Amino acid sequence: METNGKARMSKKKKITLISLSSIAVLFIGVLIYGFVITSSGYWLLAKFQPDTEEQQLSYTSAVETIEKITDEAFVLMQNTDDFLPIETSAEEKAKINVFGTRSVVTLFNSGGSTATDVTNAVKLEDALQSEVGNFELNQDLLHLHYNFYKTGKVSIDETAAPKNRSDSEILGEETNLILPEVPTSAYEDNSLYSDGKTILEHAQDFSDTALVVVGRGGGEMVDLSATDLQLTEEEAEMIDVVSTNFENVILVVNSVNVMQLDFLDDYPAIKSVVWMGFPGESGTKSLARILNGTVNPSGRLVDTWVSDMMSIPAANNYKEIDSEGNWTGSNHYENAPEEQGYFVQYNEGIYVGYKYFETRHATDEAYNYEEEVLFPFGHGLSYTTFEKEIVEMNIEEDEVNLRVAVKNNGDVPGKEVIQIYYNPPYTGAIEKSAVNLVNFDKTNEIQPGDTEIYTVSFDIEDMASYDYETNKAYVLEKGDYELMLMDDSHTELDSEIYTLNEDIIFNEENDGSRSTDVQVATNQFEDAHHIDDYLTREWDETSRAFTGPEEADFTATEEILDALTYEVPTDEQLGLNADDMPAHSQELEKSIMLSEMADVPYDDPKWDEFVSQLTLEELTNVSGTGAYQLLEIERLGVPKTLQPDGTMAIASNIYSGPIMGTEGVGVTYPAPAMIAATWNPDAGYLMGESVGNEAQAFGYSGWFAPAMNIHRTPFNGRNFEYYSEDGVLSGKIAAQVVKGARDKGVITYMKHFALNEREDGTRSSLFTWSNEQAIREIYLKPFELAVKEGGTLGAMSSFNYIGLTWAGGHDGLLNQVLRNEWGFEGLVITDAHMYPHMDPMQMLYNGGDVSLDVMAIWSGGDGNNKVWLAAAQDPATQVNTVTNLQRASKNVLYAVSRTWKTE
Question: Which of 200, 389, 428, 642 is 20 to 30 A from 510 (CA-CA)?
Answer without folding.
Answer: 428
